[in-house]
Structures are given as structure tokens and as C-alpha cells.
Amino acid sequence: xxxxxxxxxxxxxxxxxxxxxWAGQFAATLGNQDAELVDWLIAEDRRGYRPRTELxxxxxxxxxxxxxxxxxxxxxxxTFPEMFRCDQSVFDAxxxxxxxxxxxxxxxxxxxxxxxxxxxxxxxEYVDAVCVSELVGCAKPDPRLLHIAARRCRTDxxxxxxxxxxxxxxxxxxxxACISSVWLRHGRQWNLSGYRPTAEAxxxxxxxxxxxxxTALRP
Length: 219
Hints:
It is elongated and about 55 Å long. The protein folds into two domains: about 5-15 and about 85-210, Rossmann fold, CATH 3.40.50.1000; about 15-85. β2 (about 105-110), α6 (about 115-120) and β3 form a beta-alpha-beta unit. The protein contains ten helices and six strands. The two termini are about 25 Å apart. About 35% of the residues are buried. The longest helix is centred in the first third of the chain and has 15 residues, at about 15-30. The chain has helices spanning about 15-30, 35-45, 50-65, 70-80, 90-100, 115-120, 135, 145-150, 165-175, 205-210, and strands spanning about 5, 105-110, 130, 160-165, 180-185, 200. By secondary structure, the chain is α/β, with parallel strands linked by helices. The protein has a six-stranded parallel beta sheet with strand order 3-2-1-4-5-6, with helices on both faces.
């Protein structure tokens, strides 16, 4: 049974858009409607790769908030995961993959809060397994995360495809595991020389279509 492995943030879910929503609401709770503050928050977030405590310390310093950075992190982790929603086109593509006989697993780097994103967005109904790096003790590009996902789906990586937006973590993991991959470009150009994805796409639905053999888009 073939296996479809999908990244979560900025692949199945639009983290960038969700963080902008959070930033707008956070600014509003402070009585600050300044678009510049929202843009600053987005820049400081660094697409989610900045450590949360470091980000919140920067926010506290800029705004002079009385809360500790740790308190701000706790509040963020309580509210942000529940804000995620998934586009219907993603649900449709995953449903088609499942109906075509594919097992589907989410393989994501991050903390246990990733599980709350999956639940809040409704993705739980469409996947067979969710593997979160913090919970299993290894992170992409380590291919062990992909092998764990395969075992949870009661299959192996033979014929598997990886779909993700991160060239190093997602496509690097697929390369290390010797499986096919689709890189979500998001308007970017591939700039790594050691390996390349099997294919590239601009949307999750088209990426899944490639894996299912519906199209032949190549880099």
C-alpha cells in the first residue's frame, strides 16, 4: 500500500496566514491597530523558526509588557494552535489519495502543540498517522521520522512520496530515505546543489496529484 508523507506547516496548513491572523488579534488586544506592528511581529517570527521564548522576549522589550516572556509563550501556545483551518482543496486531495488506496501520514518537526493544529484544522479525519519530532525523538531531515510514520501506517517506504515546503527538512529527509518528493515552491527557486526534489508544485493539491500520478510536472 503506497504511502503519502506530508509536512504540516506551510504545506497542509498555511502557517504564515495563521500567524498574521494571530498577530492582528494580539495587536488588537493591546489597543494597537498599527499595521506596522503586525508586520514587525511577522518579521520577528521568522516563519516560525525563531525560538518562542526569544520571540516573546523581543515582543516584551518592544512593547514594554509587564508579562514575562514565559507567560507570553504560554499564552501563545494556548491560543495559536486552535486558530488553524485547512483549505477545502487540501481535504479534497487527501480524500482522493485515501480513496485511491494510499496511506497518509503527517510528518512534522515541532512540539506536541502540532497535534492540536491537526485536530483544530480537521486534518485528523483524513490521515492515518501523525508523527511529531519532539514526541518521537528525531526530526527531519533525519529519515527515521519517515520510517516511524510508515510503521504507524502499517507499511514501509517502498513507493512512498514526501510533500513539503522546506528544502532541507522535507526534501532532505526524502533524499536521505531514497524516496520521491514534491517541493512546494511558494514562489521560490530551488537553490541547493546536493539533491533535488522529484518534482515541484505551487499547491498542495497539485503536489498530491503528482504523487498519485495524475500529472507529470517536473522541475
